[in-house]
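Final report, Chapter 2: Outcomes

The project's central promise was a pipeline that accepts a single protein chain and returns its three-dimensional structure in a standardized token representation, suitable for archiving and comparison. That pipeline is now operational. To close this chapter, we reproduce one record exactly as it appears in the project archive, with the input sequence first and the structure output second.
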Amino acid sequence: MRFWMITHLLTLLILTISPAAGQGNPAPRSITAEDAANLRVLTLLAHHTAPITETSFSPNSTAFLTTSLDGTLCIWNVAARRQTPGQLRFCLEGYSPGVTMFAWSPDDRQLAVTLGDGLQIALYDIAPIVEPDEWADITPIFTLPVNDTPYLSLDFVADGQRLLAHDLFDTFTLFTLDADSEVLTRVEGMEGVMNAAASRMAVVGFDGNILLLNTADGEEFAELETDGASHALFSPGGRWLATWGGDAIQIWDTSRQRIPEPRTLEAQADNLQFTPDGRFLATWEGQNIRLWNIETGETTGTLPDHRGGVRLLIFGADSTRAVSVNTQGYARYWAISTEGVPTLRFWFEGEIDQVLVGPDSNSLITLRQDIEARFWDFERGQVRGRYDLSDAPLFSPDWTLIAISTGNLITWHGLNEDPRAFDWMPIGFTTAIINIRPTPSQELQRIGVLAANTPVFAIARTEDTTWLQIQLPDDTTGWIQPDTLRLNSNPDDLPVLSE
């Protein structure tokens, strides 16, 4: 009941004090390592009536998706003409955790979603804003034929002109995206990987051999007889294909019309990763990471002694630096020469849960659960600041927003000077420490405090406006007195919450 009431009041609030759509929202700059002290909560997304299970930004940072145990999948606006950031576009019923799969189109305008028990795929136009009383009438652009088994993943390929679906029976199906929904090909295999442009696909067969396919037409252009491979990976540029899982790693040059015999690396890798420039291959076996020169097949150096094994390896965009994290969360910073020789620079302090690299390739963030995130200058290996983030923040692809889910609520964090006017803006900022009460009175003990210069998101007020009900980023509500607020809008415009 509380969440229904909040949603109802938010609807009234949005109609009265939020900026009108279409006023224009200038694009902010991306968050960098220097911005740890320049971040705050920009807005809250409050609609779901049960805990949120998944969040996702669209590829071009124009839309945002949430799913919830309340059985809905919702699309929110981030950046589009005549639409306000944070505005709810619409929600679809029938979401089922672990069953419903989705994929964004490359142009951010369509969403592929599995329906019901996961046996059928529907394609939706996600651009329009739909009124809540019309959500039940939303229909897909078209649906694809019913499958025999649930789908496990969906991907738009071939510049968004095709859809690739992988199901529970390890079958990869390539569909045309039109009302006729033609099946271009079906291939069985243990694993399927695509190059960066999603124009080529490698399917690892149960016999260990690799089928190479064009995703535009589903045509096979090569079959590779591997040394018992169970995994495959394309290099960033798409030229090289690495296969592994048997007694050796094989590197294939797929840029030629007739693919030559592979280069063999004598190693049994647990996993591997190309450097961003595609010149070197990192393989990890047990506690050690080895770097290999792709052209020569020779080892260039070792990143040793990862106790318990390797959990994560992150390279800088120019391939001259890297961070490795072992399974216990201990991380190290490495410098890598142009010849691929790694040198240990330093150990990171404490355990690390996640490492993120920004689009500028020089902003590095390390996260520890329940501890402030550290913002690093990746090139220099220097801490530039700290900010309070959860251990699982989601950055938009353009790094202008950070989404954090807590219970039924999403908070969007960003730059203090973010120029966008969001659908739910703070009613004001605190000028001093304010006590938060469970009821609009001072009789009961406070349930928390707001620090000075904190944005305040109000839901309702008492009839005399001496108390404001606020929504907190941790998904709880409370009451404050507005005496020490620097107001951005008139609190009398808030709906009155009757006793």
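Archive annotation: Residues 119 and 449 are 49 Å apart (CA to CA).
This record, like all others produced under the grant, will remain available to the consortium after the project formally closes.
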